[in-house]
């Protein structure tokens, strides 16, 4: 492991896959941050880390609180305490309330909501002491409504959004910015293109555009902080 000798700010990103997580990691690395990338897939993380000298792979299951806390401690000891945390890991499922196994709802709650709590508890105190920092959570429209086929998913995203708001109201006056980004769109990934092959390019949202918006939110002036942020393609019906 390479120790951060350049004294760069540290950004921690969970749920780093080939889409949004990778785009966020690249954007912050290009912006001068040391980026700690968390995900369960070690091979994918290693490949992404090889793309940029300022990105580092940390295989971690965010549902394992002990592992998550140990990983954060490792990151802080090696690179410095994160000043930006982006919770992008997501647990999802389809099915009505009669169809889903209750364990699915519980698992998704651990990924989406409980992991956010552990992340904030582990990183916010250092941000408060430093006089600044940011925590951004990526969400979607399931955080705002409960459609029938999302019974195993939407309740956990709604809980996530409300928890993020509670954290924001606590940390805001202490100088730490917390925001919730609702992504009202189909993200441009290979599986999404295969599922909707007839859709034009502008039906999808580009992961790099999501990353740019998160960068913007993290670096907003203190006199104009956002909490509820929404992004969607211009043609999206809402």
What characteristics describe this protein?
238 residues; alpha/beta; Rossmann fold; seven-stranded parallel β-sheet; two-stranded parallel ribbon
Low-confidence stretches: 1-5
The count of DSSP E runs of length 2 or more, i.e. the number of strands, is: 9
SSE succession: EHEHEHEHEHEEHEHE
Determine the CATH superfamily: NAD(P)-binding Rossmann-like Domain
Protein structure class = alpha/beta
CATH hierarchy: architecture: 3-Layer(aba) Sandwich
Shape: globular
Q: How many domains, in number, for the residues?
A: 1
Amount of helix: 40-55%
Strands side by side in the biggest sheet: 3-2-1-4-5-6-9
Radius of gyration: 17 Å
- Strand % is 15-25%
* Termini Cα gap: 46 Å
Give the helix tally: 7
By CATH, the topology is Rossmann fold
Residue-averaged pLDDT, rounded? 94
Biggest sheet, open or closed, and with what strands and sense? 7 strands, parallel
The top level CATH class name: Alpha Beta
What does this structure look like?
The chain is α/β, with parallel strands linked by helices and 238 residues long. The protein has a single domain, classed as Rossmann fold, CATH 3.40.50.720. It contains 7 helices and 9 strands; from the N terminus they run βαβαβαβαβαββαβαβ. The strands form 2 sheets. The protein has a 7-stranded parallel β-sheet, with helices on both faces. Strands 7-8 form a two-stranded parallel sheet.
């Amino acid at each position: 492991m390479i120790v951060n000798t350049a004294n760069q700010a540290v950004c921690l990103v969970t749920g780093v896959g080939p889409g949004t997580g990778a785009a966020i990691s690249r954007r912050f690395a290009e912006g001068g941050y040391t980026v700690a990338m968390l995900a369960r897939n070690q091979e994918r993380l290693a490949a992404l880390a090889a793309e940029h000298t300022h990105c580092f792979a940390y295989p971690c299951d965010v549902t394992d609180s002990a592992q998550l806390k140990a990983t954060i401690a490792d990151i802080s000891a090696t690179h410095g305490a994160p000043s930006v945390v982006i919770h992008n890991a997501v647990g999802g499922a389809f099915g009505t309330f009669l169809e889903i196994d209750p364990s699915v709802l519980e698992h998704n709650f651990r990924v989406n909501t409980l992991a956010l709590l552990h992340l904030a508890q582990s990183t916010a105190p250092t941000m408060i002491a430093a006089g600044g920092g940011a925590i951004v959570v990526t969400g979607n429209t399931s955080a705002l409504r409960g459609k029938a086929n999302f019974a195993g998913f939407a309740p956990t995203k709604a809980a996530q959004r409300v928890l993020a708001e509670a954290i924001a109201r606590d940390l805001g006056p202490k100088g730490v910015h917390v925001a919730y980004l609702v992504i009202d769109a189909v993200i441009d990934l290979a599986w999404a293109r295969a599922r909707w092959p007839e859709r034009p390019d502008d039906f999808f949202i580009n992961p790099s555009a999501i990353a740019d918006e998160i960068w913007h939110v993290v670096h907003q002036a203190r006199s104009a902080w956002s909490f509820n942020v929404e992004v969607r393609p211009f043609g999206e019906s809402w």
